[in-house]
Amino acid sequence: MRLIGIEANHEAFVQDGSIACSAYVEILDQGSPGPNRSIATEEETMMNRRDFSTALLAGAAASMIPARGFAASAPPQKARNVVLVHGLFADGSCWSEVIARLQAAGLNATSVQNPLTTLPEAVASAERVLARQDGPTVLVGHSFSGMIVTEAGMHPNVSALVYVAARAPDAGEDYTALAKTYPTPPASAGIVFDGDEGRLSEQSFLRDFAGDLPEAKAKVLYAVQEPFHKALLGGKTTNAAWRSKPSFYAVSTEDRTINPDLERFMAKRMGARTIEVKASHLGLISHPDEIAGLILEAAGQKG
Q1: CB atoms within 10 A of CB 122
Q2: d(Cα 267, Cα 244) in Å, to the nearest integer?
Q3: Beta bridge partners of 273
Q4: Which helix (H) or strand (E) holds 176?
Q5: Which of 164, 166, 189, 283 has the least C-beta neighbours within 10 A?
Q6: Are 78 and 297 in contact (CB under 8 A)?
Q7: Do strands 137-142 and 81-85 pair parallel, antiparallel, or not at all (unpaired)?
């Protein structure tokens, strides 16, 4: 009797949108066909080989589909709570214009005072606020706080994620390395350090961070910016909530703090429902109607 053994190895990996795949099949014959081998046995053997080859090719093809996040086409769960997190060079008051619009729509909005110390501490501050919510909650992040949204978004109260000109790394991804694959935005040159604390210079803040705001308003925001600790920049996310939660993204087309094309890449990678706003990095202040509208959509409050 002829024995057929099949050994298969299929490896695939995805990195920065590229995919490599290798597969091999080893057919081992043990013994030789005897004189009484039937035609049915031969046909069965050929069918097994064909079936296996078909299955292997199907598996290889499936692995070549780029990994993306939760389908944005899925209807979002209705939520009445919104938690908002600020990024670098700001404080929780930067969400004031958006919060007023969310409250007018009947939603409960809370702005997290991000400590800007380390990523784990920043995530913990958001998780404490999320734990106080009484039901499904939309988690919103601007700029650097996209890192926090990506990690803290795994909280069971979170029903959807909204990124506003924000970082959106994958789990364990080196965001700095990713950002370096795009032209460096001008604001990066304006960061100044006083020991361990970093902030944005006034010139860079007015020109590259808040470029579409009236100068008087931008100067007030500059005066209240919260300094960040160097250790914050070295953190990496261990989870990517956008892989399992509905995600929404607002690209700032005139952004000089995060490259707009990088924003588009991250939004597309996560399969986010995406809008583009002709705004500086502070679109949440210069275009609060559009940002609030996207959040209301993520909360299932817009038909």
Answers
A1: 26
A2: 14
A3: 248
A4: helix 175-179
A5: 189
A6: no
A7: parallel
Instruction: Quote the CA–CA distance of 50 and 84 in Å, as a whole number.
Output: 55
pTM for the full predicted model: 0.78
* Cα distance between residue 288 and residue 217, in whole Å: 15
Supply the pLDDT for residue 168.
Answer: 98
pLDDT at site 75: 77
**Assigned token pair, 51:** 């079936």
Helices and strands, number each (H, E), in the chain: 10, 11
For residue 144, what pLDDT is reported?
Answer: 98
Alpha-carbon gap, residue 273 to 300, rounded angstroms: 13
Task: Give the SS3 label for residue 175.
Answer: helix
pLDDT of residue 76: 83
Q: Which residues of the chain have pLDDT under 50?
A: 1-66, 71-72
pLDDT of the residue at 12: 31
How far lies 103's CA from each of 107, 108, 174, in Å?
A: 5, 6, 36
Tokens 């604001």 belong to which residue? 187
The secondary structure of 14-36 as a DSSP string is: EETTEEEEEEEEEEEEES---TT
Element (H, E) at 291: helix 288-298
Report CA-CA distances (Å) from 151 to 238, 245, 258, 263: 7, 12, 20, 18
81-298 has which fold? Rossmann fold (3.40.50)
